[in-house]
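User: Please predict structures.

Assistant: First:
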Amino acid sequence: MNDRQGWEDEAEQSVDDRGVLRCDGPSTWIKITSKKTYHVPSWWNGTKYKDGPGGKMTVEVTKNGTISGEITVGAEAELSGVIAKAKATVSTKIAASVGVTVGHRYSHDVTRNKYGHLQYGSWGYKVSWEKYRSSGSGCDGVKVGSGKATLPTKETGWKYWETAS
């Protein structure tokens, strides 16, 4: 399997850091509560293949397209807040969307009697987030929303895996 070990940022980021809190007036902020590396797949034609059993697969991106971030709960406006916080606490490489260009070629041997699968995409993250609001009378906020987001980075490539059929 092509897990791309070590492609995540080297520095450990604290997921409990809310950033700068303003206690002198109303404010809102987003907290990233968890992160997991994730291959964000592209879904347009020509970026997912299955071959076998056995042999060798060679594939190439031959189209342009965009891989975009997604949010499961909340408005599209909250996606920009989640992206901004994730850039600060998870990885500066995170983007709202990533353009993929022509010309990425990849080969992989397929184990005998197995089927190889290749999917093009972005080496991004799945994050959980919480949104807080403070009235300004104290530094403690009240949770007003939460959800999950799938966020691509500008690092793109092929993910490989095998199945029995």
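Second:
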Amino acid sequence: MSGWHLTPAQAHDYAARRTDEITAMSVEAHLMHCPPCRSMLPADEEWLADGWASLRDVVDRPRRGVVETLLSHTGLRAETAKLLAATPRLYQAWLGSTVVVLIAALAAAHTLPRGSLMFVFLAPVVPLVGVALAYGRGIDPAHTLASVTPMAGQRLLFLRTCAVLVPALLLCTGAGLLLPHTVTAWDAIFWLLPALTLVSGSLLLGRVMHLSVASGVVGGLWVLGLILVSLSGQGVPLGVFAPQAQMWWGVLLATLVGALVFRVRVA
């Protein structure tokens, strides 16, 4: 085919799609290596412009996901929304597991005599587990890459923590409202101060060790505290979540937050 070239009539028939399949294949193979014959074909400038525009839209401007779009609509900046949307897959698995666990806790509360204790034990720990799975080396596959960006460090940790706390608090509050003995708003959020205290403690301890390890230590202390309260003969809800105990949770939370802010500023 080296000495063969298209005639104007053949080029016109090919462009009008009036050639048979075998001839069309031969023409296309020839056009790949023959600029003079390609120049004989009419060009649709509008079609070419639309094609390049569509290509640039896919390559240069990738479409945002559902989560990123929703976050952008809340008023967050584009880079912040993208960063929050790019949470580790373990965090996403935690979110789904949280829904399952809370449903199981509600089922136990409505069917077992002391089933509400399952929610009492779990609610303060749910945000803590989420924080442990939302940031850090070994958790986030992109941690090394993200660590050299301008948003790395404390800002990224703060954003990821907020991304965990908001859905965790909403889910636990919703589950608290569905408990069988919930009458007032207090009955649904009695776990809130302990949960925030545990998260603050893990963030502060995370300044000196891996965040997931720090969360594990704080979670272990929480379980140990519940065991000690139970062995003391007091009911777990009364001893740990009673109104008189909430003042001490508030003091401890304020102390931990103050220490955390101080450590971040002097770092």
